[in-house]
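Worked Example 4.2. Consider the chain below.
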Amino acid sequence: MYRFAICDDVAADADYIKSLILEWNREAGQPLRIESYPSAEAFLFAYEDDDSVDVLFLDIEMKEMSGVELAGRLREMGAGLQIVFITGYMDYIGQGYDVEALHYLLKPVTGEKLRPVLDRAMKRLAARENALLLTCGDGEERAEVYGCAADRQQASIVFEVAADMVKMCPALSKRVKILASQKRIIYQPTNSFYQVLSAEAYTKHGLNVHAVIFDELHSQPNRELFDVMTKGSGDARTQPLFFLITTAGTDRHSVCFEQHQKAEDILQGRKIDPTFYPVIYGASDNADWSSEDVWRKANPSLGHTIDIEKVRNAYLSAKDNPAEENIFRQLRLNQWVKQSTRWMQMEKWDACAFPVDEREVLGRECYGGLDLSSSIDITAFVLVFPPRNDTEKYILLPYFWIPEENMRLRVRRDHVPYDVWERQGYLQTTEGNVIHYGFIENFIDDLGRKFHIKEIAFDRWGAVQMVQNLEGLGFTVVPFGQGFKDMSPPTKRLMELVLEKNIAHGGHPVLRWMMDNIFVRTDPAGNIKPDKEKSTEKIDGAVATIMGLDRAIRNSGISTGSVYDERGILSF
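Applying the procedure from the previous section yields the following structure tokens:
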């Protein structure tokens, strides 16, 4: 039987949380005991006598000893119970990071908020049971079973949870020895053990693995622990078994996404591996996240253990909130999202896919944004045509380049269809394995013969030589800062134009992909700018668009002659 505890000095609040848990359990059907405590001191006194609590719902703002203080005391005692903080003030959110809280619930707490937290807690409890079964019940002599966590604190919690389970079972207690200092549980009849490891310890070679359980693989900071634990460490065993359990993440370059892709390839018949058993309940990248059929695919127990009305309410809340949309997609639909907080609402962007024809803008005034890459990466140049009257829209013409020899490697490694875009004419390659800047300069020069390019804005980083060359060709080139002061106004204006449907981009797939990748950083004054470090994929085209848009807005209504009026057209 699982044991939940509620610690809250307001009895009515404790009773309300209990009622929500009971409502959830009517569908979940777990063997459950719930106890309430009126103060942190009361819980601590009881816990010192009986520490078999699995999950603690802890109010932060209690009199005398606060919830955060109690959590700290429990972790100092080595308690591995899962802690869910409850608070009525946003200011308190995040105070318990040092004690590895499972979740933070902001009052008013609802069943909709509480349900996914309870589901997540039960998943962790189930993982510990699998670990003990493989250690004690698999008939393997000297079995080595490992539970892998993201950091030392989480590893300690995982271990304590498993140790508590042993203590609650008299049959196991007689046969199992717990070495708390080593985070190891030994099953003495077969001399097998269960050991918890963290990604922060790097000396894990030479293991003889019988089983490994990675819980929330997407939270691993890198692939080092995964490689050590799964690449050959179980070869000497007759039946090694690896459990990879995870919610979808945000980093498509991670080992977790790599395993997700392998699972998808096997399910789709693109790969064959009889040793890999994939089970994915989730929505595909292009699935309609508003469809209840998609919800059911990602949640097969929807309507049984999960009330569909609660999912509907979560969807309605996320529908008009980009931040909540990504959370809904990731946690409700197990969908890999670009970043934890989506800036551009892609359905709004897609609504601006008005046709764009180069022939219709020949000779028109425009402004360019140039975002140069490193020599081996993608480079973007976007022309922005301002409207000439109130009936016209801003028009975007984007251009992209990537080194030819690197393209296929990037397709395989990054799972981005550069090759398809190149065949469709949305992206060009330059010869060799590095960007050919001379080719791009000549291409921009050719564009200058078609359009009246009044200015080209560029990021100062790494652009000195190309800028000099473009100036030598007669273009007006303007340095553009990447800080909040320069980036915030045009970034905000871009969003306004999209929401107003006052911009036309022709549905260009490369630019769309980059817009979907944007993570925006905000300063205390409310200024915003695209953050390349936080964005999980390339955003060069979006940055080039913002720079070109800024110059178009600043120079609206100002007319000057073409660069070719001064120098003439060069012929070769």
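DSSP finds 20 helices and 20 strands in the chain. The CA atoms of residues 90 and 106 lie 7 Å apart. Compare this with Example 4.1 before moving on.
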